[in-house]
Amino acid sequence: MENSAAPLLLVYKQSAGAAEENRKLNPSSLSSSLSIFASEVWTETKLIWYIAGPTILTTVLQFSLGFITQSLVGHLGTIELAAVGIQTNVIGGIGYGVMMGMGSALETLCGQAYGAGRLDMMGIYMQRSWLILMGTALVLTPVYVLAAPILKLLGQNTAVADLAGKFSLWMLPELYGYALNFPTQKFLQAQSKVMPMTWISLIAVVFHGVMSWVFIYKLGLGLVGAAIILNLSFWFIAVGQIVYVVYWCNDAWSGLSWLAFCDLGGFVVMSIASGVMICLEYWTYMLLIILAGLLKNAELQIDAATICMNLQACVFMIPLGFLAASSVRVSNELGAGHPRIAKFSVWVMVAISVIIQITCTVVLIIARNQFPVLFTDDKRVIAEVSRLIFFLSASVLLSSIQPILSGLAIGAGWQTMVAFINIGSYYLVGMTVGCVLGFKFNFGLEGLWGGVIIGIAVQTVILLVITLRTNWEKQAALAKERITNWGGSAEDPLLD
């Protein structure tokens, strides 16, 4: 299929060039400058939404798989909700965070290769990522198998840990689905081919909703039925995307190649750096769930924290779409040697995201007593979630900027630097403050979450300062160098 983003890109570059000429001809005309600026903002906004819109829909639909499962399981009982919640956020969170993080290396390399016109390397990059992530899934398998003792070692309730351990065993196939899904997603996103992913995910969600109800309630399979359908739905998405790549991406996919086994060194390094960066962000909330299990009334605290995390994840779908758009726009433009457009795109996205997240925050506060009912009938849990909504709102507001800056870091290839920033902000500052407030001063879950919010705020400020001080011309030069040094050769050694 033809990449319909290309005409938009051409129009953008033509309008940007015309704007530069107009500035030279009319340097003192304020109204002309404002008109040109508004035109550039509008053109960039259309291009951003072309990528972010379908990405948000896709992310919402794929997140809905777990959301539907937890909603249905939550009405079986509080212990079932706690077990699925802690498996999804802790054990599943380890697998999801590592695989998504390592797969995001493809956003840098594929995005910059696409911008530079090196489509011949994109399919090979994806195959290398498949190999690396499959190997990573093998390494992570014992975590799923030993989920129950791991959760007990972390101090979790025995009954919840045992049930979560059983559910984790059934969810093992999903881990290997991640190994195929994330590289394929990044490959398509780098080319702005996001609508096919949306349609595939929509079909999967319809199937998942109907069959989950049948397996959990009508057939009485409970958590086992939930796991079976969740795995099937996720694998449908992974396989569907690969089929699309094979049959409709002939410009960037030329079939399986032995080149996938070559030049893996730099690719592994960037994958690990990407994995560490993303995991340090993603695991902050996983650790929050674990620490909630150490508080008094652990089952109640885990249920409340799990529901809040699900609500935040729902709202986070929007900035997550902008994260993808930021990564794609920055990597494409740096690869193409257009640093000014990359910089401009980031600030347009920040402005759009801030407006949207403020709106979402207002909605959450107004409907704070209605949202928890989607997950549970327990009045104690509903009351606890309503009390935590203001902490949730603060997290939502911060997520209007932070994901875009993270997307910028991925697009520019700053993963290693940001990994160190995340260690300091999230863990040395955020978690330390959270534990002191939560346990030492007995603020409980509010104290723990307050520490997380402080950590996110510190990271956001640091990334803002770095972004403002960035030499974008130098980043464009580094992008071209990275395509050669980290991407490897396009020459097939077997043919040589």
Number of helices: 18
Helix content: over 70%
Low-confidence stretches: 1-25, 487-496
Q: Into how many domains do the coordinates divide? A: 1
Task: Give the gist of this structure.
With 496 residues, this protein is an all-alpha fold. 82% of the residues lie in helices and 0% in strands. It is globular, with a radius of gyration of 23 Å.
Task: Give a structural overview.
It comes from Stephania yunnanensis. This protein is an all-alpha fold. It has 18 helices and no strands. The two termini are about 30 Å apart. Mean pLDDT is about 85; it is low at about 1-25 and about 485-495.
What descriptors fit this protein?
496 residues, mainly alpha, 18 helices, 82% helix, Protein DETOXIFICATION
Please describe the topology of this protein.
Layout: H1 5-25, H2 30-74, H3 78-103, H4 105-115, H5 122-145, H6 147-153, H7 158-170, H8 172-190, H9 195-218, H10 222-248, H11 264-292, H12 298-335, H13 339-366, H14 379-398, H15 402-412, H16 415-440, H17 444-468, H18 472-485
Helix pairs in contact: 1-2, 2-3, 2-9, 2-10, 2-12, 2-13, 3-5, 3-7, 3-8, 3-11, 3-12, 4-5, 4-8, 4-12, 5-8, 5-11, 6-7, 8-10, 9-10, 11-12, 11-16, 11-17, 12-13, 12-14, 12-15, 12-18, 13-14, 13-18, 14-17, 16-17
